[in-house]
Amino acid sequence: MSVIRLEGATVTYTGAASPALADVTLEVEDGGLCLVAGATGSGKSTLLGLMTGMVPHFTGGRLDGRVLIGGRDTRTHPPREIADLVGRVGQDPLAGFVADRVEDELAYGMEQLAVPPGTMRTRVEQMLDLLGIAELRDRPLRTLSGGQQQRVAIGAALAAGPRILVLDEPTSALDPTAAEEVLAAVRRLVDDLGLTVVLAEHRLERVIGYADQLIRVADGRVTSGTPDEVLREMDRVPPIVELARLAGWTPTPLTIRAARRHAASLRHRLLTPDDAGASHVTQPADHAVPARPILTARGLSVTYRDLIAVRAVDFEAAPGVVTVLMGRNGSGKSSLLWALQGSGPRRAGTVSLDGHDPAALEPAAARRLVGLVPQTPSDLLYRETVSAECEQADRESGAAPGTCIALLAELVPGVEGARHPRDLSEGQRLALVLAIQLSASPRVVLLDEPTRGLDYAAKSRLAEVLRSMAADGRAVLLATHDVEFAASVADRLVMMAQGEIVADGPARDLLTASPAFAPQVARILAPGPWLTVADVAEALAAASSGSAPPAANSAPAADRP
Amino acid sequence: MTIRGSLQRRGTAGFDPRLPRALHPGAWWVWAVGLATAASRTTNPLLLGLIIGVLVVVVNARRSDAPWAGMFRIYLLAGLVVIVLRVGLRIVFGGPYGTHVLFTLPEIPLPDWAVGVSIGGPVTLESVMAGFYDGLRLATTIACVGAANVLADARRLLRSVPNALHEVGAALVVALTVAPQLVESLLRVRRARRLRGGRSTGIRSIPGLMLPVLADALDRSLALAAAMDARGYGRLTALPARARHMTSALVLVGLGGVAVGLYGLLDATSPGWLGLPMLAIGIAAGAAGLWLGGRRVARTVYRPDPWQRDETLVAGAGIVAAAAMWLAGTIAPAAVNPSVMPPAWPVLVPVATVGILIALLPAWLAPPVRLAVTTAQAHSNGQARTGEA
User: What is the ipTM of this complex?
Assistant: First the structure.
């Protein structure tokens, strides 16, 4: 039996030339996890919006065809009339909170649906237990961590008793551990409660193994089927699937556990028989001791009232190196970036860049030394059009007119100058802000969570951009939660916890050493030193040609089965 | 931890009045308005001082550890400023008032058209006293409002609004939630302006600051509206047009009546029919409107604050204070509003004193508050442990 049924649904937004979704017919079966995959702007959010009635009731536009949620037609039932059937959880939990305390937030939906007080009381208790947030019941929502907030949001959506839960990228703002926490809660809802969960997620690799159905959205077209079927026709796939394709594993394993069973033979193929114990992997970071650092920070501390965000950190950045800063939410990554740039608060310590301290300079001079792209890039944008932003940036940077727009064209080709910056996709907006910051030609570029909301294509484009910036002799430092992205771009990895640097070293060593921060390929091929599918492909080629490149220093002593 | 174990959430039935719990916020407001009414009917500094003392004791005994609970001193400070201003104005613009000259300020001659206004000149005890009495009365009223704000959680009060006012309540809750977020986004954008080398202060920075903040606020509002709708907000609230108009008319008349009635009660010089009768009419009209409007709204309240014996006692204590002051005003008007010309020593009026002291009882009558600090600390400790694991 299907709980969600789309019959020839076509959505055309007002003023749009072509429909955002065209003639979609699909069914979501009762019970089970239905995963929605697709690039940014592919119509993924529109599809989820259809399933909650938000489209077209909240977004406007025209809907042709029918959408039936538990038998109710969304044309005649606005979202509030299907609130007892569908729960909705968005990307930013804080944006959807109505109350200010956990318990009141959980009860809000039930109050609106006039659930009797006694039932309400018991259901709130059940939700607290089900999502493991019982000890947070009295806490103000704003004081919770991102993972906790997202679990409260799920509980709040579930408390009203819907059979369907629609989640739009619930983990995109979370660190890997918190994301795992949320996804584990979602899996438990599917497994134990038999709920129907529709989940959109950019980082497919985290959930693909648990999905019963995969819906792929591309250019307004939708294909639906079992994960195995649908994955076959996708070109951007999670690393685990890519690795399986490369190694020719069938059926395609979708979990680390399944892939590990095939891994031993692959590891053997990656090792040359004559050179037992050493693996073949070229390490991009291996130009040993890099050039003299251009940015040096000593004893850097940042405090907010009684909270110590950064505690006496020593840090250096060398040109030509991409450094990735990782650590859970609140570990001080952003504070460190802002303090290095000089615009954020700093309690103690010195930062030196070409003999200058950026904090002591005028903002305009500081950004010529070090540019920062903040977590919400749109904060920097305030003009009406892209070209106006770029001209403004040229003036601010004292660069030749046209510098910024040329940089933008280099980063992402084909952004029209007449468009409003707010109408750009996440990736394009990020590129615009990056271009604005690069127009001042800083030697150090800092990026705070640049991969937020980016799809696979945009991420690999960003990785290329960052690598080429490093190749130009810039020092690049970025904070990210995305392990796979870090694996593809990082030379050096710095891990932070509680405001201190707890590990600092070659990315390859650290990423293969830590289980929580290891990318999928490293988990599958552990204890091997390979991080990405590209690494494996390279090693395979090397192994088959027989010409052994110099052994990696981090290679395992023996290949344990 | 032992405290936490024994202080589990209360049930609504078979409650033990001595278990810590939050008093219904309405009870605190009635109590505070009662004291404010008493304060507004007297200028006797002894009685006013006594009221402030009562407020301080009760606030200290029964305030929670919520972020706003430490704000009482700000209301007291505001009161102090009012007194200083009043007395200062009297000294500067005092004019010939009374005969007991304390000292003389140099007088600034004013043109003829400014007749009746004088700057400087002799400062009399009478004018200083009048300024001080006036200021103290206003300061006491401010302190009463402050005490209510500190003791009662505004959000909980909004939760107890009648069904018909649910929309208004929801709007206020949203405003309370969004306001700090707006401040946050303003700070964030200001910081970001520096990244572009722009100015973050001054008139010319305003477009660069305001546009992102407003766009952000708009996005947030839309997201919140969508979230509320998705969770069933506004469901089954459709009322026929006639009932809706009737409701609004009744509520408006009610509000007007309450305002006029309160004014009549607070201002001792207004005719008697303007006080209690108007208030009663206003309350009746408002209640009818709310009942009519709330009939069709299908909505329940999660763990509503119960109105129990303690609430009645606390509210009653405030009403007794107001009534005692009214009684004292009819028995001994000269003592309740002591004369400043000629200056007379203020004396304590027994009836009013007893009434005000009864308003002190909530310091013991109200149940102790549940302090969140102990539990929150236990949680954060627990979290830190799991976080490190």
Answer: 0.82
Nearest Cα of chain B lies from the Cα of A157 at a distance, in angstroms, of 7
The tally of domains found in chain A comes to 3
Cross-chain residue pair A58–B229, CB shorter than 8 Å: yes
Flag whether residue A499 sits within 8 Å of chain B, measured between CB atoms: no
Whether residue A505 is contained in a domain is answered as no
Domains of chain B: total:
2
Contacts of A372 in chain B (CB under 8 A): 195
The answer to whether residue A342 sits within a structural domain is yes
> Does one domain contain both A414 and A560?
no
Pairwise CA distance, residues A378 & A389, whole Å? 12
- Same domain for B137 and B36: yes
Query: Is A83 exposed, middle or buried (CB count within 10 Å of its CB: 0-12, 13-18, 19+)?
Result: buried
Q: Which residues of B touch A379 (CB under 8 A)?
A: 188-189, 192, 212
**Same domain, residue pair A199 and A345:** no
Q: Does A156 touch chain B (CB under 8 A)?
A: yes
Q: What is the pLDDT of residue A530?
A: 87
Q: Do B300 and A117 touch (CB under 8 A)?
A: yes
pLDDT per residue over A400-423, tens digit each? Answer: 999 999 989 888 888 888 988 888
Q: Which domain holds residue A560?
A: 239-281+521-561
Question: A55 vs chain B: nearest CA distance in angstroms?
Answer: 11
- Determine, for residues A382 and B211 on separate chains, whether the beta-carbon distance falls below 8 Å: yes
Q: Is the CB of A378 less than 8 angstroms away from the CB of B215?
A: yes
Q: Quick check: B306 and B249 in contact, CB under 8 A? A: no
Q: Is residue A320 part of a domain?
A: yes
Closest CA–CA distance from residue A48 to any residue of chain B (Å):
13
Reduced DSSP (H G I as helix, E B as strand, rest coil) percent helix, strand, coil of chain A, to 5:
40, 20, 35
pLDDT one-digit tens code per residue, A70-99: 999 999 988 988 988 999 998 888 888 888
Same-domain status, B153 and B272? no
- Vertex A533: Cα angle to A453 and A178 (nearest 5): 40
Q: How far apart are CA A102 and CA A525, in angstroms?
A: 42
B235 in any annotated domain? no
A434, A381 in Cβ contact below 8 A?
Answer: no
Looking at the structure, tell me whether residues A356 and A210 fall in a common domain: no
**H helix intervals, chain B:** 2-6, 25-40, 45-62, 72-92, 125-151, 154-159, 166-195, 206-230, 241-266, 276-294, 309-331, 333-336, 350-358, 362-365, 372-388
Q: Do A382 and B302 touch (CB under 8 A)?
A: no
Of A95, A120, A341, the CB nearest to B223: A95
> Are B141 and B40 in contact, with CB atoms under 8 Å apart?
yes
A300 inside domain: yes
B37: confidence class by pLDDT, cuts 50, 70, 90:
very high
B235 with A113: Cβ contact below 8 A: yes
Query: Are B38 and B146 found together in one domain?
Result: yes
Q: How far apart are CA B190 and CA A62, in angstroms?
A: 39
Quick check: A104 and B174 CB within 8 A? no
User: A422: how many CB neighbours lie within 10 A of its CB?
Assistant: 13
**Alpha-carbon distance B298 to nearest alpha carbon in chain A (angstroms):** 6
Which is it for the CA torsion A479, A483, A489, A494, positive or negative? positive
pLDDT at residue A528 is higher than 70: yes
Please give the residue of chain B at the shortest CA–CA distance from A103. Answer: B302
Orientation angle between helical segments A146-159 and A102-112, nearest 10 degrees = 30
* pLDDT, tens digit (0-9, with 9 covering 90-100), for B48-94: 999 999 999 999 999 887 777 778 999 999 999 999 999 999 888 87
Chain A contact for B301 (CB, 8 A cutoff): yes
Does residue A222 sit in the same domain as residue A274? no
Residue of B nearest to A368 (CA): B197
Cβ distance of B195 and A374 shorter than 8 Å: yes
Containing structural domain, residue B52: 21-160+308-378
- The rounded distance, in Å, linking the Cα atoms of A58 and B35 is 48
